[in-house]
Amino acid sequence: MARRRPPRPPGPPRSPERPRLPVAPRLPVAPAGSVGEVFLAFLKLGLTAFGGPIAHLGYFREELVRRRRWIDEAGYADLVALCQFLPGPASSQVGFSLGVLRGGGLLGGLAAWAGFTLPSALLLLACALGAAALGGPVAQGVLHGLKLVAVAVVAQAVWGMARTLAPDRTRAGIALAAVGLAVSVDSTIAQVAAIALGALAGLQFCRGEPAPLSGHLHLPVSRGAGVVALLLFGLGLVLPPALAAGGGHQGMALFAAFYRAGALVFGGGHVVLPLLQASTVGPGWVTPDAFLAGYGLTQAVPGPLFTFAAYLGAAMGPEPNGVAGATVALLGVFLPGLLLVYGMLPFWDTLRRVPAAQAAMRGANAAVVGILAAALYSPVWTSAVLGPRDFALALAGFLLLTVWKLPPWAVVLLLAGAGALGAL
């Protein structure tokens, strides 16, 4: 006969089970759209997206990730990481890539770029064409106020980039060395050398924790198409300067100068300022006053900061200038960044896992902080701050941007108005 087990003593009373909270369903990604849809979506953003590259990424996330669901959050974060890793205008590269994704390929990317870029480019072109008609002390006061805006905006960019891209002693030292090189040799060669040396220093001294990985990108770009785009990017660095030197063609020289600047912009759109200054003011193509006034005016329009190139191309002394110069400059400054991101899309999942690439980028980004800091002194500060009143206005603009968080277009209006009043 089998033994019976003694009954277990009663345990403590069970606590009632906690109700499970409902889990929000993951929103599905919308199916592929059309090239026309991409253009209209980015045209809306190009007309309304004020505030610079970081603000643009926020607009994209709200409109295209959360509302239209063109891509999920993880994929968007990965796309932003890729575009911040590469040289070029990060917000335009993100927009171009989203257009490639939604529009089914290269035509979608070009539609996104055109919709986001054309509004500000056309506004700045119109301002450049009308600048020659401006005269009198009030107009000159407005232009001087725009130069003070450039002081405030570049100072804000240096302050913010130094905190994020040079937060430790090693990267601060790389930035300081870049300042020394940039002020010692005032040329594009010095700026290129500073970035290259910063990348080498990063390989040696900036190997830290690898950047966290996010999602995975699945865009309709083959590896073959990526290789072709990267080869075209390299060809653009070599062929136009050679043709300009051989034939003395000013249009090719203009394209080469803006292409080189667009290919070397690490760390944000503001870094294009010293590169374009060396390429346009240095050879006497654009006057220093027109350069800084145009840069200040660029802060008042929506869209990417790189559309400053349209203003400079139209304001050129030698031909091509006007509409033709603006077109050449605009294509030159944007093309390298678009070729790079299109070429790297198929390879990003592999490259982002390489610690050496991350270390080199830390060093290069620290160097561009130094290059921008050198530009803050010359030509921005030395050309705009001519006395105590200018210093007070520039400082007020900086505080309005950094402490009171006013949008850049509002600071443009205030300082331009102050400049006009000072001229009366």
If you had to describe this structure to a student in words, what would you say it looks like?
With 424 residues, the protein is mainly alpha-helical. Helix content is 71%, strand content 0%. The protein is built from 18 helices and no strands. The protein has helices at residues 35-48, 53-67, 73-85, 90-103, 106-131, 136-165, 169-184, 188-205, 223-247, 250-263, 272-281, 288-298, 308-314, 322-344, 348-351, 355-384, 388-402, 408-423. The longest helix is centred in the middle third of the chain and has 30 residues, at 136-165. The N and C termini lie far apart (116 Å). Mean pLDDT is 86; it is low at 14-27.
Task: Summarize this structure as a short list of keywords or feature phrases.
single chain, 424 residues, mainly alpha, 18 helices, 71% helix, globular
Helix/strand-derived class?
A: mainly alpha
Chain-averaged pLDDT: 86
Question: How many H/I helical runs?
Answer: 18
Q: Can you give the helix content as a percent range?
A: over 70%
The span between the termini is 116 Å
What is the rounded Rg? 25 Å
Overall shape: it is globular
Residue runs with pLDDT of under 50 for 5 or more positions: 14-27
Strand fraction equals under 5%
Q: Give the beta-strand count.
A: 0
Give a short account of the largest sheet. Answer: none
SSE string, helices as H and strands as E: HHHHHHHHHHHHHHHHHH
